[in-house]
Amino acid sequence: MAGALLLLLLTLASAQSFSHQRGLIFNLDNGELCLQSAQCKSSCCHRTGGLSLARCTNRAAENQECSPKSIYGVYYKCPCENGLTCEVDKSIVGSITNTNYGICQDPKSSSK
């Protein structure tokens, strides 16, 4: 009986931790370790190199390098902030190797 009560309390405690606004797996802040961009508030799980740990970070601002898409959910260059587009020459090989980098541009801007 005491074992069942302890198990119930532990289950409730772990369930409570998932009900907070910022979770352990999703809704992660910048700087926190991630495995997929869907886990990050910013929607960008970024790594600096092939063997580095990925962390949530801001999306790319205007005139910064960007990646238009990631097959794996982790970026070497983050996608653009909302309202900007990543101007890049897309290729199949670049998509597979995650090397299709471009520059964030405002599509409403007259200068390119």
Walk me through what this model shows:
The protein has 112 residues and is of the alpha+beta class. Helix content is 21%, strand content 12%. The protein is built from 2 helices and 5 strands. It has a 3-stranded antiparallel sheet with strand order 3-5-4, with no helix packed on it. The protein is globular. The model is unreliable at 2-20 (pLDDT under 50).
What descriptors fit this protein?
alpha+beta, three-stranded antiparallel beta sheet, 112 residues, 2 helices, two-stranded antiparallel sheet
Summarize the SSE layout with pairings.
Layout (H helix, E strand, L loop, with lengths): L1 H17 L26 E2 L8 E2 L8 E2 L18 E3 L4 H6 L4 E4 L7
Antiparallel strand pairs: 1-2, 3-5, 4-5
Poorly predicted ranges: 2-20
Helicity level: 10-25%
Largest sheet: 3 strands, antiparallel
Mean pLDDT across all amino acids: 78
Count of DSSP strands:
5
Structural class: alpha+beta
What does the radius of gyration come to? 19 Å
Kindly report the spatial arrangement of strands forming the biggest sheet.
Answer: 3-5-4
Straight-line distance between termini: 71 Å
Q: Give the ordered list of helices and strands.
A: HEEEEHE
| Count of DSSP-assigned helices | 2
Shape: globular
Strand proportion: 5-15%
